[in-house]
Amino acid sequence: xSAATGGGPILSLDTLVRLGxxxxxxxxxxxxxxxxxxxxxxxCDAVAVPARFxxxxxxxxxxxxxxxxxxxxxxxxxxxxxxxxxEWPSPARYATGALVPHTPRLIHRPDGTFPYTPPxxxxxALCRIMGTTPTWSRVVSA
Length: 142
Fold this sequence. Notes:
By secondary structure, this protein is of the alpha+beta class. The protein has a domain at 41-133. The chain is 19% helix and 18% strand. The chain contains three helices and seven strands, in the order H-E-E-H-E-E-E-E-E-H. A hairpin with a 3-residue loop joins strand 3 and strand 4. The protein is globular.
């Protein structure tokens, strides 16, 4: 079909390939690595927050696992599926598989062999800082 018959322009395979390449992200996501000597038997996900909130979260946590940072975000390693039945408060983002857009640097490594920050205290600290009510505390209407 041609544009004249209402079918739109015909694109060659080369054109489609070039267009497809232009739609891909410049950098594929990377998995945050667990430091040498540590094990992650529960798998790893990550919770990211804008960097300005990072220093506010740290003192509110009873235990801090591995924390990674760059200029824009801080990421906390949490056990896989820590998003189950939780709505992490915006602007926090949950990254399944601890996949992040680029490789930040490790800024905190806990003592011991487990890299995790406990997800419930992290969730509550983020809700407090973001001014959000935890989802299990919200009133449910019928």
